[in-house]
Specification:
6-stranded mixed sheet; Rossmann fold; globular
Length: 397
């Protein structure tokens, strides 16, 4: 290594999770710190007896270190190039990658790609990166160089969108902007032949919910001849898939007028002047007050109801409430797609909330699909917390 790192020694027995390649070191597991690291500094994690366990980024909070290497390593351009190369090789072998009319996908998925605290989505030549830790943010230029080296001519620009994702306690005046290249003439991407305008500068997350790609495809496969309601539609992804699949009508609902405008623009891109679609800028719960028997396929894809554990109980009540409303009002023989993207809501807790909603409605409900995030959002087998997206497809009699 080019320079010694500050060492963090763990309490006896607390090294076991690291030896099993779990990338988080919790503050309660720390015995001592041999120095005063700043947030984002690289540190060396050691057992209580001083044996090397890993190198990671120090941060203030319950997760004190996020491990980026379980082997001694120099964290330089070569290190990031290897990391990015491994991530790229995985994406290239996935079914959607070639000849599917798709040029939008997740290139880096945090712990799943051995880069905790980093998310990168690829939009038809532009990589949009979000750092969720100060350590990853400090490496943004090396990471951008690594992406250009690995992707070559496929990559024209790297946009950093970390301003709102960095820990709020950190004294970092981050500003979103292009790390390399500049804004392209078009913000157009394609997914299974459907076109979308993506606003990565101002939109939610990195600009588009890439994680629902395969689930949107399934909606299309089940939509033929159905009347479809897409709640929390954002830019309308599920709506277009339903239309592509032959839906009889599609209604898109979101509280954001800006999202509804993007939805309408995207409909015109794919289905110009198609009378089957209508969009509503309205509160979802208000819209669902009286829709009895109007729809026989409903999609519930809300934003994260719980972003921290203190909100878990309230979030589960929110899932129960909105699913109850859908169960009560969907047409007999209807299909309900329902999702949770809250990491702290476990698959079991989400299923319990949906079960409670079904019981309250008194309807006969069967699970026909259990859904998760797609393969370009890989989950490390050593870090099950990376499985954040949960979904159920339900048949309602």
């Amino acid at each position: 290594m080019s320079a010694p790192y500050i060492k963090i020694l763990l309490k006896p027995g607390k090294e076991q999770s690291i030896l099993r390649f779990h990338p988080w070191v919790f503050s309660g597991a720390i015995k001592s710190i041999q120095g005063k690291p700043d947030e984002g500094d690289l540190v060396e994690v050691c057992s209580s007896s001083g044996e090397f366990l890993g190198i990671g980024h120090y941060q203030i909070g319950s997760i004190a270190v996020r491990i980026i290497s379980f082997k001694p390593a120099e964290i330089n351009d070569d290190f990031w190039r290897i990391k990015m190369g491994n991530a790229w090789e995985l994406r290239k072998c996935l079914p959607f990658f070639e000849n599917s009319g798709t040029d939008v996908f997740r290139l880096v998925h945090g712990e799943g790609d051995g880069m905790p605290g980093l998310v990168v989505d690829y939009y038809n030549g532009v990589a949009v990166m979000q750092a969720h830790s100060i350590g990853m943010y400090r490496h943004r230029h090396e990471i951008a160089r690594a992406m250009h080296d690995v992707l070559g001519s496929r990559l024209t620009a790297v946009y950093d969108k970390s301003e709102k994702t960095l820990p709020f306690k950190a004294d970092i005046a981050a500003k979103d902007g292009y790390v390399t290249g500049s804004a392209p003439d078009s913000h157009m991407v394609s997914e299974y032949g459907l076109k979308f305008r993506v606003d990565w500068e101002e939109g939610q997350k990195t600009g588009f919910f890439v994680d629902q790609r395969e689930n949107r495809k399934l909606v299309g496969e089940l939509s033929k001849g159905r009347d479809v309601l897409n709640m929390f539609c954002y830019t309308g992804g599920f709506s277009f898939s339903a239309m592509q699949g032959g839906a009889r009508l599609v209604h898109s609902v979101d509280a954001s007028a800006k999202a509804i405008e993007l939805t309408r623009q995207n409909v015109e891109l794919n289905f110009p002047e198609d009378p089957r679609h209508e969009a509503f800028a309205e509160d979802v719960f208000t819209f669902m007050k009286d829709i009895r028997n109007r729809y026989d396929l409903i999609i519930l894809d809300p934003p994260a109801f719980a972003k921290h554990r203190d909100a878990l109980k309230q979030a589960l009540q929110g899932y129960k409430r909105i699913n109850t409303r859908a169960f009560e009002q969907i047409r007999p023989g209807g299909i309900l797609f329902t999702f949770s993207c809250s990491q702290i809501v476990s698959r079991e807790k989400f299923r319990e909330a949906v079960f409670s909603a079904a019981a309250i409605s008194g309807r006969h409900v069967r699970i026909i699909h259990q859904l998760s995030q797609p393969a370009d959002h890989p989950v490390s087998i050593y870090h099950p917390e990376g499985e954040y997206l949960k979904g159920l497809v339900l048949h309602v009699e």
